[in-house]
């Protein structure tokens, strides 16, 4: 097996923030063998000159979906047409198209520096299929950790198309078992309503599951060593989700002391504590753009604003209280493309008031811990996967350096960076924020 020697890179150690010039030796199948200032090439060793590049671990997108492109969605489609699209998507032909789209989106994420994705809700288990194709080496893509369908209440967030519905603890357990049977890695539940399908202002944070139902779902998932990610957009939603034992709160809201305490010590969760994964990119357009620019309904915009304000306050409280925080951008939602993960990090620095080092830690070290994959991912260390990105500028000085990735290496393989189709209208609007 050939070894690869990456010479003279400026390695950014995200644990300390220190930068030093090193060589990195890794095997062709992607395990880091040595990191040291001067490594002599062994026989059968390919040399890559990395001078002038900053090297850091590949980013982990802790909250994404792969089914959509991120181009603003028309949410006013008639229910009849929606049903028709759904029935078509369910056919073999439809599933193939969906899988192709998801593969394309996953590869765009990879080229933008995301080497691992936790996908939190997709249609017809095509996420499981894509994960297996990537793992078998059939196709190149980021490592995927997948959740299959959402678990929601009848007519709850994402239902009926994106969710398995249940209305009692036992039905909830059954839906965990259904997702388990299809080979998922995570369970995703919708504890409150969401912005995209709310029918009135304020519905995004309204409670849907009860605490008893959440306890049953978490218990069933944990029994099978699966963690539970909870879509939550209100304080009361966080309270019952954490009491019920969920492992991650997605999006988030304003916290009180009980909620902060539960994050830090959560006896019903799998690891004994729970984490927060905010997703600003999905909500900040509603906050900062006009209705004419957004082309979304008043209900969606108003709910988006409410959720954004709650989320940013909750995030600041979480930083202050030293709650474990990850990073995700809710790719596939309107305005959240697969090629611009940098916006999530940039927004968190500017509006969440954290340093570039902190948000990079959330996106790598913390996300790896939250996903339970820190033995292999999340930092550049001997014995871990050679998943890294090379940048010409120092992201610790300016986080928007992530906008232009010079090279991506996934499992020791050089990823050929191809130009991706971008939506200049959308980018111009978001650049203004
Ligand atoms: Zn989401």
From TrEMBL:
Pfam families noted in UniProt: Amidohydro_1 (PF01979)
Annotated TM spans: none
GO molecular function: hydrolase activity, acting on carbon-nitrogen (but not peptide) bonds
Domain Amidohydrolase-related: 54-413
Top-level lineage group: Bacteria
Protein name according to UniProt: Amidohydrolase-related domain-containing protein
Organism encoding this protein: Enterococcus sulfureus ATCC 49903
């Amino acid at each position: 097996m050939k070894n690869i020697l990456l010479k003279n890179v400026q390695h950014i150690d995200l644990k300390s923030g220190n930068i030093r010039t090193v060589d990195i030796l890794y095997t062709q199948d992607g395990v880091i063998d040595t990191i040291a200032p001067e490594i002599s090439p062994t026989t059968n060793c390919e040399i890559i000159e990395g001078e002038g590049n900053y090297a850091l671990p590949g980013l982990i997108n802790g909250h994404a979906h792969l089914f959509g492109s991120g181009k603003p969605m028309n949410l006013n489609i008639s229910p009849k047409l929606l049903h028709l699209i759904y029935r078509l998507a369910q056919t073999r032909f439809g599933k193939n198209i969906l899988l192709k789209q998801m593969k394309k989106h996953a590869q765009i994420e990879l080229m933008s520096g995301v080497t691992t994705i936790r996908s939190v809700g997709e249609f017809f288990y095509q996420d499981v299929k894509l994960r297996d194709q990537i793992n078998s080496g059939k196709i190149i893509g980021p490592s995927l950790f997948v959740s299959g369908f959402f678990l929601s209440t009848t007519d709850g967030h994402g239902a009926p198309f994106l969710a398995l519905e249940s209305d009692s603890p036992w039905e909830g357990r059954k839906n965990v078992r259904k997702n388990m049977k299809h080979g998922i890695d995570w369970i995703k539940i919708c504890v409150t309503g969401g912005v995209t399908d709310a029918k009135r202002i304020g519905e995004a944070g309204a409670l849907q599951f009860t605490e008893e139902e959440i306890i049953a779902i978490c218990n069933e998932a944990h029994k099978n060593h699966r963690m539970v990610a909870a879509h939550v957009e209100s304080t009361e939603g966080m309270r019952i989700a954490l009491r019920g034992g969920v492992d991650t709160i997605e999006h988030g809201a304003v916290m009180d002391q009980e909620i902060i305490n539960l994050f830090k010590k959560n006896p019903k969760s799998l690891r004994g504590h729970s984490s927060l994964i905010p997703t600003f990119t999905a909500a900040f357009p509603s906050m900062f753009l006009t209705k004419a620019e957004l082309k979304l309904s008043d209900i969606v915009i108003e709910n988006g604003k409410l959720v954004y304000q709650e989320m940013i306050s909750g995030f600041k409280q979480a930083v202050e209280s030293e709650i474990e925080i990850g990073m995700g951008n809710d790719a596939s939602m309107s305005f959240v493309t697969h090629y611009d993960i940098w916006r999530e990090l940039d927004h968190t620095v500017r509006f969440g008031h954290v340093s570039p080092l902190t948000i990079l830690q959330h996106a790598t070290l913390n996300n790896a811990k939250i996903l339970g994959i820190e033995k292999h991912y999340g930092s550049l260390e001997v014995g871990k996967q050679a998943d890294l990105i090379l940048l010409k500028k120092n992201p610790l000085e300016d986080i928007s350096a992530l906008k232009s990735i010079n090279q991506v290496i996934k499992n020791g393989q050089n990823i050929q960076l191809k130009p991706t189709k971008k939506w200049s209208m959308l980018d111009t609007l978001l650049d203004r924020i």
